[in-house]
Specification:
Chain lengths: 112, 115
Protein backbone atom coordinates (compact mmCIF):
# COMPACT_ATOMS: atom_id res chain seq x y z
CA UNK A 1 0.00 0.00 0.00
CA UNK A 2 0.90 3.66 -0.03
CA UNK A 3 3.54 4.77 2.46
CA UNK A 4 5.69 7.75 3.37
CA UNK A 5 9.15 7.53 4.89
CA UNK A 6 10.80 10.57 6.36
CA UNK A 7 14.05 11.28 8.06
CA UNK A 8 14.15 10.27 11.69
CA UNK A 9 14.69 13.01 14.18
CA UNK A 10 15.28 14.81 16.30
CA UNK A 11 17.13 17.45 14.33
CA UNK A 12 18.87 20.25 16.20
CA UNK A 13 20.22 23.26 14.35
CA UNK A 14 21.54 26.69 15.16
CA UNK A 15 19.63 29.74 13.98
CA UNK A 16 20.34 30.62 10.31
CA UNK A 17 21.49 27.09 9.49
CA UNK A 18 20.28 25.26 6.36
CA UNK A 19 17.56 22.68 6.88
CA UNK A 20 16.80 19.54 4.90
CA UNK A 21 14.27 16.94 6.00
CA UNK A 22 14.13 14.00 3.62
CA UNK A 23 10.86 12.40 2.56
CA UNK A 24 10.19 9.61 0.11
CA UNK A 25 6.90 8.03 -0.83
CA UNK A 26 5.51 4.91 -2.40
CA UNK A 27 2.15 5.13 -4.07
CA UNK A 28 0.19 3.82 -6.97
CA UNK A 29 -0.59 6.50 -9.48
CA UNK A 30 0.32 10.10 -8.89
CA UNK A 31 -0.32 11.27 -5.36
CA UNK A 32 -0.44 14.80 -4.09
CA UNK A 33 2.26 15.53 -1.54
CA UNK A 34 2.14 17.68 1.57
CA UNK A 35 4.22 18.93 4.44
CA UNK A 36 2.37 19.59 7.67
CA UNK A 37 3.86 21.29 10.74
CA UNK A 38 2.81 20.91 14.35
CA UNK A 39 3.88 23.62 16.77
CA UNK A 40 3.82 22.77 20.48
CA UNK A 41 0.27 22.41 21.79
CA UNK A 42 -1.33 22.96 18.40
CA UNK A 43 -2.84 20.87 15.60
CA UNK A 44 -1.32 19.91 12.28
CA UNK A 45 -1.09 22.88 9.93
CA UNK A 46 -0.51 22.62 6.22
CA UNK A 47 2.89 24.11 5.43
CA UNK A 48 3.04 23.48 1.68
CA UNK A 49 1.86 21.10 -1.00
CA UNK A 50 2.53 19.95 -4.56
CA UNK A 51 0.08 18.15 -6.76
CA UNK A 52 2.12 16.94 -9.73
CA UNK A 53 5.64 16.06 -10.76
CA UNK A 54 8.17 18.94 -10.77
CA UNK A 55 5.79 21.22 -8.84
CA UNK A 56 7.48 23.19 -6.11
CA UNK A 57 5.51 24.04 -2.99
CA UNK A 58 6.70 26.95 -0.90
CA UNK A 59 5.62 28.85 2.20
CA UNK A 60 7.33 30.85 4.97
CA UNK A 61 10.74 30.28 3.36
CA UNK A 62 10.26 26.50 3.19
CA UNK A 63 10.34 24.70 -0.15
CA UNK A 64 9.82 21.18 -1.42
CA UNK A 65 9.88 19.87 -5.00
CA UNK A 66 7.85 16.87 -6.18
CA UNK A 67 10.42 14.53 -7.74
CA UNK A 68 8.74 11.65 -9.51
CA UNK A 69 12.00 10.03 -10.65
CA UNK A 70 13.25 9.70 -7.07
CA UNK A 71 9.77 9.55 -5.46
CA UNK A 72 10.87 12.28 -3.07
CA UNK A 73 9.54 15.49 -1.57
CA UNK A 74 12.38 16.82 0.61
CA UNK A 75 11.71 19.88 2.76
CA UNK A 76 14.31 22.65 2.72
CA UNK A 77 14.82 26.06 4.25
CA UNK A 78 17.85 28.21 3.70
CA UNK A 79 17.98 29.89 7.10
CA UNK A 80 15.98 28.51 10.01
CA UNK A 81 14.69 30.57 12.93
CA UNK A 82 13.98 29.65 16.53
CA UNK A 83 10.28 29.98 15.72
CA UNK A 84 10.59 27.09 13.21
CA UNK A 85 11.02 24.66 16.08
CA UNK A 86 8.20 22.15 15.60
CA UNK A 87 7.43 18.65 14.36
CA UNK A 88 7.26 18.31 10.56
CA UNK A 89 5.17 15.63 8.86
CA UNK A 90 5.41 14.58 5.24
CA UNK A 91 2.22 13.09 3.78
CA UNK A 92 0.65 11.91 0.55
CA UNK A 93 -2.88 11.67 -0.72
CA UNK A 94 -3.61 9.39 -3.65
CA UNK A 95 -6.18 10.75 -6.06
CA UNK A 96 -9.51 9.01 -5.52
CA UNK A 97 -8.76 8.37 -1.87
CA UNK A 98 -9.56 10.83 0.88
CA UNK A 99 -7.05 9.63 3.39
CA UNK A 100 -3.70 11.23 4.05
CA UNK A 101 -0.79 8.86 4.60
CA UNK A 102 1.79 10.33 6.98
CA UNK A 103 5.43 9.84 7.78
CA UNK A 104 6.48 9.49 11.43
CA UNK A 105 7.32 13.15 11.84
CA UNK A 106 10.64 14.88 12.40
CA UNK A 107 11.14 17.07 15.43
CA UNK A 108 13.18 20.17 14.69
CA UNK A 109 14.74 22.28 17.42
CA UNK A 110 16.44 25.53 16.46
CA UNK A 111 18.72 27.09 19.05
CA UNK A 112 19.55 30.80 19.16
CA UNK B 1 -9.17 32.54 11.01
CA UNK B 2 -11.60 29.62 11.31
CA UNK B 3 -10.19 26.54 12.98
CA UNK B 4 -11.10 23.02 13.98
CA UNK B 5 -11.58 22.59 17.72
CA UNK B 6 -11.55 19.41 19.78
CA UNK B 7 -12.65 18.56 23.29
CA UNK B 8 -11.45 17.41 25.68
CA UNK B 9 -7.75 18.01 25.24
CA UNK B 10 -7.00 15.02 27.46
CA UNK B 11 -9.28 12.11 28.38
CA UNK B 12 -8.40 9.40 30.86
CA UNK B 13 -10.61 6.32 31.00
CA UNK B 14 -10.67 2.79 32.31
CA UNK B 15 -10.36 -0.15 29.96
CA UNK B 16 -13.77 -1.29 28.78
CA UNK B 17 -15.40 2.10 29.18
CA UNK B 18 -16.99 4.05 26.37
CA UNK B 19 -15.51 7.37 25.33
CA UNK B 20 -16.76 10.06 23.01
CA UNK B 21 -14.31 12.48 21.48
CA UNK B 22 -15.77 15.68 20.15
CA UNK B 23 -14.83 17.92 17.29
CA UNK B 24 -16.23 21.10 15.83
CA UNK B 25 -15.12 21.30 12.18
CA UNK B 26 -14.82 24.53 10.24
CA UNK B 27 -18.36 25.74 9.67
CA UNK B 28 -18.65 25.58 5.87
CA UNK B 29 -16.76 22.30 5.50
CA UNK B 30 -18.59 19.19 4.42
CA UNK B 31 -15.91 16.48 4.72
CA UNK B 32 -14.75 15.25 8.10
CA UNK B 33 -11.98 12.93 9.21
CA UNK B 34 -10.50 11.22 12.22
CA UNK B 35 -6.85 10.24 12.52
CA UNK B 36 -4.86 8.90 15.43
CA UNK B 37 -1.25 8.84 16.47
CA UNK B 38 0.00 6.26 18.93
CA UNK B 39 3.01 7.62 20.82
CA UNK B 40 6.13 7.31 18.71
CA UNK B 41 4.27 6.06 15.65
CA UNK B 42 2.82 7.54 12.48
CA UNK B 43 -0.39 9.52 12.20
CA UNK B 44 -2.91 6.98 10.88
CA UNK B 45 -6.16 7.54 9.03
CA UNK B 46 -9.26 6.14 10.72
CA UNK B 47 -12.31 7.32 8.84
CA UNK B 48 -13.78 9.94 6.54
CA UNK B 49 -17.39 11.14 6.62
CA UNK B 50 -19.52 13.01 4.15
CA UNK B 51 -23.23 13.59 3.76
CA UNK B 52 -23.99 11.77 7.00
CA UNK B 53 -22.25 8.59 6.10
CA UNK B 54 -18.81 7.02 6.18
CA UNK B 55 -17.10 7.41 2.82
CA UNK B 56 -13.85 5.61 3.60
CA UNK B 57 -12.41 3.78 6.60
CA UNK B 58 -9.24 1.97 7.51
CA UNK B 59 -8.84 -1.52 8.92
CA UNK B 60 -8.29 0.08 12.32
CA UNK B 61 -11.85 1.40 12.30
CA UNK B 62 -13.60 -1.76 13.47
CA UNK B 63 -16.97 -2.29 15.13
CA UNK B 64 -15.73 -0.69 18.34
CA UNK B 65 -15.58 2.66 16.59
CA UNK B 66 -18.39 4.83 15.32
CA UNK B 67 -18.76 8.38 14.11
CA UNK B 68 -21.68 10.72 14.15
CA UNK B 69 -22.64 14.24 13.24
CA UNK B 70 -25.38 14.73 15.82
CA UNK B 71 -26.13 18.33 14.88
CA UNK B 72 -24.96 20.98 12.45
CA UNK B 73 -21.70 21.68 14.19
CA UNK B 74 -20.30 18.67 16.06
CA UNK B 75 -18.57 15.59 14.74
CA UNK B 76 -17.90 12.81 17.24
CA UNK B 77 -15.83 9.66 17.47
CA UNK B 78 -17.11 7.00 19.86
CA UNK B 79 -15.07 4.09 21.08
CA UNK B 80 -17.51 1.62 22.58
CA UNK B 81 -15.24 -0.45 24.81
CA UNK B 82 -11.78 0.99 25.10
CA UNK B 83 -8.65 -1.14 25.07
CA UNK B 84 -5.19 -0.28 26.33
CA UNK B 85 -4.00 -0.08 22.73
CA UNK B 86 -6.52 2.69 21.99
CA UNK B 87 -4.31 5.08 23.95
CA UNK B 88 -3.24 7.67 21.40
CA UNK B 89 -3.64 11.23 20.23
CA UNK B 90 -6.80 11.55 18.14
CA UNK B 91 -6.98 14.27 15.52
CA UNK B 92 -10.10 15.55 13.82
CA UNK B 93 -9.86 17.25 10.43
CA UNK B 94 -12.23 18.84 7.95
CA UNK B 95 -12.10 20.01 4.36
CA UNK B 96 -14.46 21.73 1.99
CA UNK B 97 -13.89 19.39 -0.92
CA UNK B 98 -12.48 15.96 -1.42
CA UNK B 99 -9.82 14.99 -3.94
CA UNK B 100 -6.07 14.88 -3.93
CA UNK B 101 -5.44 18.59 -3.97
CA UNK B 102 -7.65 19.62 -1.10
CA UNK B 103 -6.39 20.77 2.22
CA UNK B 104 -7.49 19.03 5.36
CA UNK B 105 -7.51 21.33 8.38
CA UNK B 106 -6.64 19.65 11.64
CA UNK B 107 -7.65 20.26 15.23
CA UNK B 108 -5.18 20.26 18.14
CA UNK B 109 -6.02 16.70 19.10
CA UNK B 110 -7.39 14.81 22.10
CA UNK B 111 -4.95 12.71 24.05
CA UNK B 112 -6.74 9.52 25.13
CA UNK B 113 -5.20 7.49 27.93
CA UNK B 114 -6.73 4.09 28.67
CA UNK B 115 -5.77 2.60 32.03
Amino acid sequence: GDSVTQMEGPVTLSEEAFLTINCTYTATGYPSLFWYVQYPGEGLQLLLKATKADDKGSNKGFEATYRKETTSFHLEKGSVQVSDSAVYFCSSNRGGSEKLVFGKGTKLTVNP
Amino acid sequence: EPEVTQTPSHQVTQMGQEVILRCVPISNHLYFYWYRQILGQKVEFLVSFYNNEISEKSEIFDDQFSVERPDGSNFTLKIRSTKLEDSAMYFCASSDRTGGTDTQYFGPGTRLTVL
